[in-house]
Design goal:
about 260 residues, two-stranded parallel ribbon, about 20% strand
């Protein structure tokens, strides 16, 4: 379904019944990044997924290349769906979106699950994001060979999962402007890290990452855990960055255990 949220039309999807949880995907993906985790979650929860600004079927609008705008889009979607309080899970860039939203609106969150993400980026990462944004500015043909190689590297230990994910990414960056906008938002974490504001998150939080994640390694997860009062951290063996695709059952187990039993209707 498409819902007008400010200056964009947001594509969102809903399955299952129970207490609501909203899932936020990562860079160059759409809601299908959660496809392998979803079957377990929908048996106990009302699961809402959406494509964030300039990704999937959501329009780009007047994009400003900031994490604040991406988080504000999430808030407008919750308003439109009349969801006052939800559990929030975000993967990779989606993790930075849900943390930014939690910093500003902890009162709207029941529980928070940042997955395979980081609250800051270093110089090399910031330069990488800006380089990719520049390639995106040259169009799909300039960008996609690099994105394909990036994706191959992410699935080096699980090549059997590569083809489906590449198919999703090809569709998501056919218009690469949304990818460029998100890259600029991530690059800003070099000068504007979330670290100083993590203490403002006052909700139960579980930080999850793969032991083999080279993009957002366990050290990044530990920084988040240390910054959020009372937060817990879990490591998943045998997974690189693409945890929701590579180890979906292990991730679902951790998520469901943290979310707890669904109250009766």
């Amino acid at each position: 379904m498409l819902t007008r949220c400010g200056d964009i039309d947001v594509a969102w999807f809903e399955v299952g019944r129970g207490a609501p949880i909203v899932l936020v995907h990562g860079l160059a993906d759409d809601h299908r990044a959660w496809r392998r985790v979803l079957p377990r979650l929908l048996l106990r929860h009302r699961v809402v997924l959406y494509d964030f600004r300039g990704h999937g079927q959501t329009s780009l609008g007047d994009a400003d290349g900031t994490l604040g705008q991406l988080a504000a889009d999430l808030g407008r979607l919750l308003d439109a769906l009349e969801l006052d309080r939800v559990a929030l899970a975000g993967f990779s860039l989606g993790g930075t979106i849900v943390m930014r939203f939690a910093i500003d609106h902890s009162d709207r969150i029941e529980k928070l699950l940042p997955v395979s993400t980081s609250s800051r980026v270093g110089r090399a990462a910031a330069e990488w994001y800006l380089e990719r944004a520049g390639l995106a500015g040259q169009g799909f043909e300039a960008l996609f060979p690099h994105l394909e190689q990036d994706t191959r590297e992410q699935f080096a230990t699980a090549p059997e999962l590569l083809a489906d994910h590449l198919s999703i990414r090809r569709e998501c960056v056919e218009d690469p402007r949304g990818f460029a906008n998100a890259c600029r938002a991530m690059a800003r974490l070099r000068e504007e890290p979330l670290d100083p504001d993590l203490e403002r998150i006052r909700v139960p939080t579980l930080v999850i990452t793969g032991t083999g994640d080279q993009l957002c390694p366990p050290k990044a997860a530990e920084i988040i855990r240390a910054g959020i009062r009372g937060a817990r951290m879990e490591l998943v063996d045998g997974s690189g960055h693409q945890l929701p695709v590579q180890r979906p059952d292990a991730l679902a187990d951790l998520m469901l255990g943290f979310l707890g039993p669904t109250p009766p209707a």
